């Protein structure tokens, strides 16, 4: 099974476009502001919605007037005491969509049982539309009109207050402009989008798929009676990971560090990424195997020895405190103990360093020197960072090491999509080519994937 292509419509600057995907590696190349980031972001938004939420600026700019006009028609109908027909049809042309087209072999039908369009479909091309649409139009209408009524009442009260404070002033034919939220439906959704919108999936008919015309995709129209697929049809089907654009390598991150953060966290320091990888896949305290017992015994022995040394060191001080009459007979006595964790070995600025071989002029090698991670070139740090993240993505997908412990895994997703934004940042042109060729190999370096 693999993704043949996606068709993105009404998302940011992508009005309607098809993106063909290779079975292994696909590169987006183009001029600045040509839509590369929009395409990457659309796949993040639709295929990994729990980690990447929509915002109003994801709606294509040319559709904003239509959404505003829809809200104004609701207000006009209220003023005219007319009934509003709340149907999704007026929204359809403005809603962001992503059509995911797969190639599915006959033996893989169990993975896509919720997407099969007809009973006689036996494999081949299969499509599903993911559409970002209103959850409940009745509730959206009620909340919007309530917010509009509150804004109108507040505006009237403000004007009346000004008039009361200045009773002798001549009434102004045009009172000063006063804008109160929401000024229109777009303004309302700017704050309430995630409350009223969600992603729903609809099966597509492969027989109605048409090729792009003049470089513009032509997504098929859904029948008016189309029903959304129950649940999440992509759950258990596709695993999505992403590496955002790399920035600020070697810089300390502000705020407290989280030892349990995943390897794909936003931290830019290589040592932070290694800590996440260790915590998720290597930490012997999490679901220990028999081969971890030696390491755990060593940690416990070190902890006991350190506790004894601390107790001896603080004995005089604690005795002096007790001599002052506190604590009393029934009061707890202070003691010092440690809690060593293997991850603590990475919790300092020199946890990750780079070895450098130095050759003297006479050709004799001097002892190896170590440089902190921040002293290496940005390109080298970026390369190692991306490789470690790819390794972490692969191990999380295939449930390697500690990731295999805990919850019961029903099955591994047959599709693994990794999105890398600006992999060329800081890299020499030759290294860019090497990374692109090797990245897929890193993701496939597992016995079950060879």
Walk me through this protein's architecture.
This protein has helices at 36-47, 64-79, 89-92, 137-165, 185-196, 270-282, 293-322, 378-397, 429-443, and strands at 2-11, 14-20, 97-104, 124-134, 197-204, 238-243, 353-356, 369-372, 415-420. Helices cover 34% and strands 14% of the residues. The strands form 3 sheets. A 5-stranded antiparallel β-sheet has the order 2-1-3-4-5. A hairpin with a 2-residue loop joins β1 (2-11) and β2 (14-20). The radius of gyration is 30 Å and the shape is extended.
Q: Which sequence of SSEs, written as H and E, runs from N to C?
A: EEHHHEEHHEEHHEEHEH
The termini sit apart by: 15 Å
Biggest sheet strand order reads 2-1-3-4-5
Outline type: extended
Given the helix and strand composition, which structural class is it?
alpha+beta
Rounded radius of gyration (Å): 30 Å
Share of helix among residues?
25-40%
- The fraction of residues assigned to DSSP E strands is 5-15%
| Main sheet overview | 5 strands, antiparallel
Give start-end ranges of low-pLDDT stretches. Answer: 250-266
Give the mean pLDDT.
Answer: 82
Number of E-state strands: 9
In DSSP terms, counting alpha (H) and pi (I) runs of 4 or more, how many helices?
Answer: 9
